[in-house]
Each structure stands twice: as C-alpha cells, then as structure tokens.
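Request: Mind sharing a record?
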Amino acid sequence: MAAKVFLTHRLPGERVHELARACDLNVWMGPGLLSAADLRAELAGCQGLVCLLTDRIDRALLDAAPDLRFVSSMSVGVDHVDVQALTERGIPLGHTPGVLVETTADTAFALLMAAARRLGEADRFVRQGSWTADTAWAPDFFTGKDVNGATLGIVGLGAIGQAVARRALGFGMRVVAWNRTPRAVPGVELLALEELLALSDFVSVHVALSADTRQLLDADKIALMKPGAVLVNTARGGIVDEAALAVALGEGRLFAAGIDVFEREPVAADNPLLGLPNVVLAPHIGSATQGTRALMADMAAANALAALRGEHMPCCVNPSVYDQL
C-alpha cells in the first residue's frame, strides 16, 4: 500500500506531480492556511509531511502522529519546527537552502533603497492627492539618504549576507560585517557588532533565528546605532526588538527601516511599526518570485521523494538520524 503523505498547501513547480505519483498524497485546499487543529487531524495515519514555515511542528503534534516518518519543509529556516523532537524520534527534516539567496538579497537591497529614498512615503503622498501646485517642489522635498558612498553594516555574513555585500559594493558602498565566526569575504571588513552599529549608515540583518540571536538587536544595541541610520531586516522576526526599534524611529534617532519579517506573523494590528511613516513594510516576501518559489517547491518535493524511497534527503537539517538506522 502506498505511503500516505500530507501537503499543507498547493505547491508550484513540477516535482509535486512526481510526488503525487509516488504516494497517496493529500493536499490541503483551504480556505486559508491550515490551522493547528486541522494539521493534527490531517496527519492521522500519515507517514510523510510536506509543510511551510507557517506550520508549527512541535512535540504535541508529533505525539499525535506516531506514524510520521519524514518531514519536508519548503523553507530555509526551520525555527517553526522542533528539530530536537524530530531527531529524538529518528525523523529526518528536509529544507530548501541556497535557492533563495539571490532573491532574498534583492529584497533586502530593495528595502534599503526604498527606505533611503522614502519611496513608501512618496507613493502615499502621490496617491492621496497631496502633490499639488502648492507642494510641487522645494529644496527639502522628500529628501532621503545617499546610498553611494555610505557604509553598510551586514549582521550575519552567510550566503545571503554575502550576496547583499556584492550588491552594495556595486553601488559604491563601504561594506563592513559582523559574523559569529570569522569569515573572509573580498571587499568586506569584519568588525565587532558594537563597532559596526556605531559606524554604519545602513544595517542589514542576515542571521538565522536561534536562542543566541533572539533579540540580538535589542534596545541597548539599537541605542548604539549611528544617528540617522537605516535598519533593514529580511532574516527573521524576533532578531530585532520591534518595540525598541519603533521608539528609535519615532524619536528620530534612526532615519528609517525596511522590514519584511516580524516576531508575530501575520503582523499584529497594534504593532508600533505600522503607525510610523518612515518604515517600509512587506509581508515576508523575501523569496517571493515565481522562479524561486517553484525551485523551493521542487526541492521540498525532492526531499520527500528521497525519503519515500528510503534514501537520504538531499537537503537534511538533522542528518544524524541516518546514523540511527
């Protein structure tokens, strides 16, 4: 009898069709995203799960799914999954690294440029009919910050951080970086985090969310930032203290911010960042191009197909589970 696999959302790409032929595949068709209760119910009797970063995979869910043999997540980060709980059960976890590096770097730099040149404010100004003969032009009309010649501080010099550095160097920026372990990258100067914050005109966050990086940029660190700086976060919510950031922006200590990720997603209506004009906001779309999402879906399907064949997943977060076989 074919293995039962549950897919928490319809996926783009081609390999999902191959996956459907290889197993008894059940796909959540909505409406909306899958709730925790529905996920628990749908997983009954399933050997496999293909999920998204919006699906919480915790011990309680695993306890309710004793037949589960593998999990494949269409995501790079896996902070939505209790990896330790999976590993204890000998369940491999697949993810989709690498494929979204350039796309996410594009998003980070787009947010940097939009925040620097106040594009969100300018767009609203035009759409709301505020651009009239009386407000046609002035020397200080929507003045922003220069990017060329400015210093960009990159917090986390992994693949995405390095891709952002390449873009910044192409724009004539000085690039400095902090990384938890030393890493030599051409054109990039490594600094202590505190020194980077004090020096940088722009700061872009590119570390993974973990116990060590949660609230990495807290109120004390934000207070160290160069007056008039711009903060960009396309990594994960929770790395930046949103309340402290909102205070710094509201008081004018920071010029602007570009934020794609939030500690709570979807973002809460009372999040203080929503009421600030000098923040460019996006709904976690760092990897959101048609091509990248299709490639991510294909990688997630490939991990699941390998697990169904009894093979090692090509991209496994916890490969030590294979030592238990």
The chain has two domains: 4-97+290-324, 101-281. The chain has a mean pLDDT of 96. Residues 290-308 form the longest helix (19 residues). The radius of gyration is 22 Å.
